[in-house]
Design goal:
- The chain is α/β, with parallel strands linked by helices.
- The protein has 17 helices and 5 strands.
- Strands 2-1-3-4-5 form a 5-stranded parallel sheet, with helices on both faces.
């Protein structure tokens, strides 16, 4: 068996040590450990691992949520990913299968079971319940595509009865939207976001359904949330489309202009970034963080004098603004 580089993720340091010892016993010596899903995600951005083994039940971001983030990443989506738990219910098995899990490992760890799970990743065979759920999901999606919404709804309601997942509720919401039943669609989309707080498409669809009901303020919040998630995943095109849609609603929001400023700065379009930051300041001239963002932009534009003025404006509003003070002082000393 070829030695693997493994990233083990768990908030329990004793569980990390136990798994690490077993992996070393099986000949996998290149083992990295992360004490949270957020730390693991940061580590994955700088190093490639042969496989990830993450505990399901972690605060802030669960192992399942981390799996979904990985599967949505253009570079990491094929990485073998195992989830561990003390007991896998049918609901959890279905949720993990839909999210693209490679395998499930029951705790406490058993060396023979662990060895069989990762011995040959290329020969992984999904559990029967995963295969059945995947077939039903495909049937439901095909019915949606052919506009057979009532039949599709029956399929997804049965899937929800077997095990709730964000994807099931999203598709129910999609069907209800197509049928013009926006209130019921919103309920389904809201359930999807409760199950997966990073489900950008569900926030996006919920925002548009709210807009259909004339609830512009709530629609703006949902679309902004979706845009923020897209930006965090570097999906700038999707984020830009949503932010401009918010402006079409008629919202004169500091958050929209600031987000557009951040987006265009990341894309290297400094002119558009500055235009949107200035609009944000016009809406809310006493927001120190916008002035700070403008200062950072001017630094990237190689204009320290204008940057200094922006950091000074931020400090005038918020004298204890540590980050702004540090950069302002550095400019004063000529080190920037």
């Amino acid at each position: 068996m070829k030695p693997l580089s493994v990233l083990s993720v768990d908030t329990n340091k004793y569980a990390l040590k136990e798994l690490g010892d077993l992996l070393e016993y099986l000949g996998h010596e290149e083992i990295s450990q992360a004490g949270s899903a957020n730390s693991a995600w940061s580590m994955m951005r700088v190093k490639e691992y042969d496989c990830i083994i993450a505990e399901w039940n972690m605060p802030d971001m669960t192992g399942l949520a981390l799996l979904k983030v990985v599967r949505n990443d253009n570079e990491l989506y094929n990485t073998p990913f195992y989830l561990t738990d003390s007991a896998f219910t049918k609901v959890k098995v279905v949720q993990a299968g839909h999210a693209g899990v490679t395998g499930l490992i029951v705790r406490p760890f058993d060396v023979d079971n662990l060895k069989s799970k990762i011995a040959n990743l290329a020969e992984y065979v999904p559990e029967e319940s995963m295969v059945e759920a995947e077939a039903s999901l495909e049937e439901g999606l095909n019915l949606i595509e052919s506009n057979n919404f009532d039949e599709a709804l029956d399929v997804f309601n049965k899937l929800v009865a077997d095990g709730e997942t964000a994807e099931h509720y999203y598709n129910i919401g999609y069907i209800k939207t197509a049928q013009g039943e926006y209130a019921e669609a919103i309920q389904a989309f809201r359930k999807a976001t409760q199950l997966d707080r990073l489900f950008a498409k569900a926030y996006e669809a919920m925002g548009r359904a709210l807009r259909k009901l004339g609830k512009a303020g709530e629609a703006e919040k949902c679309l902004q949330k979706a845009a923020d998630i897209y930006m965090s995943k570097e999906q700038t095109g999707d984020a830009e489309e949503l932010l401009n849609e918010i402006l079409e609603i008629g919202a004169d929001s500091i958050n929209v202009y600031n987000s557009l400023g951040v987006l265009y700065r990341k894309k290297g379009d400094y002119k558009k970034a500055l235009q949107n930051y200035k609009k944000a300041i016009k809406v809310h001239p006493d927001e120190p963080y916008i002035h700070y963002n403008v200062g950072r932009l001017y630094l990237e534009m190689k204009d320290p004098r204008s940057a200094k003025d922006s950091f000074a404006a931020a400090l005038k509003i918020k004298p204890d603004f540590k980050e702004a003070k540090e950069i302002f002082d550095a400019i004063q000393l000529g080190s920037l």
